[in-house]
Structures are given as structure tokens and as C-alpha cells.
Amino acid sequence: MATEISQPPKRYRGTVVVVDDEEGMCTILSKVLGQEGYHVTAFTRPKEAIAYIQNTPPEVVVTDMKMPDATGMDVLQAAREANPSTSVVVMTAYGTIEGATAAMRAGAYDYITKPFHLDDLLLTVNKALERTRLEEENEALAQTLSRQYAPQAIVGESAVMREVHALIAKVAPTDAPVLIEGESGTGKELVARAIHQHSGRHNKRFVAINCASIPEQLLESELFGHEKGAFTGAERTKMGLFEVAHKGTLFLDEIAELPLALQAKLLRAIQEHEIQRIGGLHTISVDVRIIAATNRNLLSAVEERSFRSDLYYRLNVISICLPPLRERREDIPLLLDYFIARAAQRLRRPVPILSPEALAALEHYPYPGNVRELENIIERLMVLCDKPIIEPEDLPAEVRSLHSPPPESPPAYPLDYRRAREEFERSYLEQLLRHTRGNVTEASRLSGISRRHLYEKFERLGIRADRFLQS
Question: Which domain of life does the UniProt lineage start with (predicted)?
Fold first, then answer.
């Protein structure tokens, strides 16, 4: 039997489902919560409540633990499946607290022991609602960020990058922890996102935190959350990133910078799949895949005793090492094409062509900042240079200074205008086909020359487009 009570004296607060096989309890709780502004739907039959929750997930569920045709655990499971943000409060008799603690481990927000004061129940429900709203805000923020920062491609066809791609494909479907090692700017977060996107958790959150960018005194709260009043300035309950990433992936960048005290707490969270907020009295179950990254040698940190060996071996189940860009120079032309095309699309302008000299300069630059530095160089180029062909003088000074080819000797016989134009056309069209990998339709779109005229030029200049297919 379902009873709906919504009383308007106080402003509307939220939706609550009450489940208890005692009709008197349902009536009392409905009246008290309704007077506080809640819209209450009460059930004396748990199976009816489960069906309702599955169709209309409320913000808070208050359920008894022991009932005839279903248990509070059944109600909890239904609520969590219908909407992971729903907060569940379980009511239990004093002698059956074990069941309530089991419910907490399974994801219940809190429990209250019968008999209880109605003021205590109201306080618990109010806090449960606050937790639900906080989680919904986090979900909305995560969706906004995912739209703004869509995953980028991991570009590279060198042997070492093919190995990285193969390893991502193998480890992504598992829940094994992954440790990604590499210099700054090599793309560690891109690899972590790729693992998440190809895993069974791809429709859940990917949450990233840089352990080096947050002060030590705030890092524990950021990871594990805190209760209201846990310390000075804690004016509201805060969910930690472990809770935010529940059922998803938590990416811990610069893990070597994590303080030793927090390393112990992180190890326990990974091993026990549960965390405890600062100032919290209960543990909270979390289901999170951990991916960590570092630009330091973690094994050396273990030997120096600045990093716990047990945490190292817990994280280093699968290891992926990303090489610096200077060790995979054959990928530079692909990366240049990728970042130029992406910037051109964003800036709504035609895709420029790199002259052979500019390409050579960019290929020989050492890139101490790795792929991130290359991306920034192209971003700057695309903003400041609007020419159809990028020449060496358009490049940043640090790139030009490392590639200053000797001046070419003048030809024995100066080229006439017709031959000079042919040489330019041949160079331009070959660069265009190399950029489009032999796709004549795309070359026509980028150059503004019709396909028919392109084929006429190819025939006149002796250019075979099929030589550039997938080159």
C-alpha cells in the first residue's frame, strides 16, 4: 500500500520514499517529513516500493531492514541501481545493528536505531538530501567537463607506440590498477582516458587529480571528503573524489608527490574498497578503478623511502612506459598533421601546408616538453600565421635556431618563370597529397581546386596520387 503526503506549510525540500511494514511507522514518518516540506511516498509492502523506486527514483529512501516479503538490502540495491545518487537511510532495531553496518558497506548513506527521536531522523534525512544534491551537482559538472574536454587521439605509428596501443587494448577491459610512467608532456592522461574509454566503466566518470598541485593539508579532503564541522571551515559535507568516481576511474597524476601519511590511507582504500571521510564515523564502500601516473622513477623513491613499497607494488600491476618524443621522431609528422587539422577546425580556417624546410625544422627540434610542447607550438602558429604555406621564418625562434640549413648554391642556369611555377606546383601538390594521405577529394576541399583540375595537374606534372595512399 502506498501513501503520498506533501504538505506545503514549509518550502519544498525534496522527495522521500519511506518503506516499513508497520503502517503506524509509515504514517508518523510521512507526517513529520511532510511538515518539513518533503514530498513523501510511503509503502508497507517492500516489493511495491521497489517497483516504484525503479520507475521514479527519489532523492532519499528511508527503509526498515527486516520486513516480510523483502529486506532493506533489497530496497537499497534497487535504489542504487535506479539512481546511484539516491541516499538510503536504513532503520534497524538495536539488536540487529550488524545488518545496518552491512548496508553501509553496500552503499547506504547512514542508519538509525529504533526507537529513535524524530528530530534525529529529520537531521539524518536532511544530511542525506544534502549528500544527494552534492552528488548530482558533481555528476552535472562531470558531464559538462566531459563535453568540454572530449578525449583526444593518441597519435603515433612508431613501433613503441604500437606496443602502447596494444597494451591499452589488453588492459582496458580489466579492473587491474595501471601505473603510467613517462616525462611531463608525453600524454600520460591521454593514455589513462583511453583505458577508461575502452573499459566497461566508459559510461561512468573519469576523475583526474594532480597530487602535486594541491596543498598537503587539503589533499586528504579532496580525495576522501569530509563531514560538516570536521575542521575549521568545513561548513558543509564534501564528497571526496573516491566517491565522485564510484563505478568509474580515478586517475592519480604525479602519484610520487603524495605524502607518506596519505599513501597509507590510499593503500587501505585500494585494498578494502572503502574510504572514511575526515570526521566521519562510518566507512563508505567505493568501486573505483585506479590509474596512477608519475614522471619520476618510483622504484628509486621506494629505495629512498619516500614512497611505500606496498603501495608501489599494489599500483604497479600493469606498467605502461611512454617514451619522450625525441625517441619516436617518426611520429612527429603525424602529430603535426593531427594538431594542425584540429586547430584549423577549431579556428574555422583552411588547413595550411608545411613547407619542406619548416617540416624539417620541426622534425629536428628536440621537444624537451614532449607532445605538449609540440601542440603548443602548433597552437601558436595557427593563431599568429594565416598563410597557406608555413615557412621556417614563421616558426618560433627556438625551433628555427636549431635548424639553419646552409644557403643553397644558385643554379648554373636560372629557372625561367614557367619552370619555377611548375616546381612550386609540384612541391605544393605533393605536400597536399602527403597531408591528405592520397585522398584527392579531401585535397580538392582543402586547396579549393576541383578534382578534375587536380587530376589534370597531376598528369601534367607526373604526380601519382596513389603513391601517397595511407603514407
Answer: Bacteria
* Residue 470: predicted pLDDT: 55
User: What's the rounded mean pLDDT across residues 230-253?
Assistant: 91
Q: Is residue 127 part of a domain?
A: yes
Mean pLDDT of the region 114-134: 90
For the four alpha carbons of 435, 440, 446 and 452, in that order, the dihedral sign comes to positive
User: 3-state DSSP call for residue 324?
Assistant: coil
Q: Strands 353-354, 389-390: parallel, antiparallel or unpaired by DSSP? A: parallel
Q: Give residue for cell 612527429.
A: 332
Whether the Cβ atoms of residue 199 and residue 289 lie closer than 8 Å to each other = yes
Residue that terminates a domain, selected from 401, 432, 453: 401
List, in order, residues 6 or more apart from 298 with CB less than 8 Å away: 179, 181, 255, 256, 307, 312, 316
Nearest Cα residue to 294 out of 316, 267, 275: 316
Same domain, 191 and 119: no
Compute the average pLDDT of residues 425-448. 81
Beta-sheet pairing, 238-239 with 225-226: antiparallel
Q: Residue 266: which of 311, 227, 309, 206 has the closest Cα?
A: 311
Q: Decide: 318 and 171 in contact? Cβ < 8 Å.
A: yes
For residue 247, what is the DSSP state?
T
Is residue 92 one of the residues assigned to a domain? yes
- Asked which of 2-11, 108-117, 258-267, 390-399 is least confident by mean pLDDT, the reply is 2-11
Q: How many domains does the chain have?
A: 4
For residues 454-458, give the mean pLDDT.
Answer: 80
Could you tell me the residue range of the domain that residue 431 belongs to? 415-466
CA distances 83 to 40, 136, 237, Å, are 18, 10, 20
Question: What is the helix (H) or strand (E) element at residue 292, kind and residue range?
Answer: strand 289-294
Position 113 pLDDT exceeds 80: yes
pTM of this prediction exceeds 0.70: no
Mean pLDDT of 289-314: 95
Q: Is the domain of 304 the same as that of 176?
A: yes
Model confidence at 192: pLDDT above 90? yes
Same domain (yes/no): 392, 439: no
- Which residue pairs, CB below 8 angstroms and at least 24 apart, start in 97-103? 99/65, 99/66, 99/72, 99/73, 100/65, 101/282, 102/73, 103/65, 103/72, 103/73, 103/76
Is 167 within the bounds of a domain? Answer: no
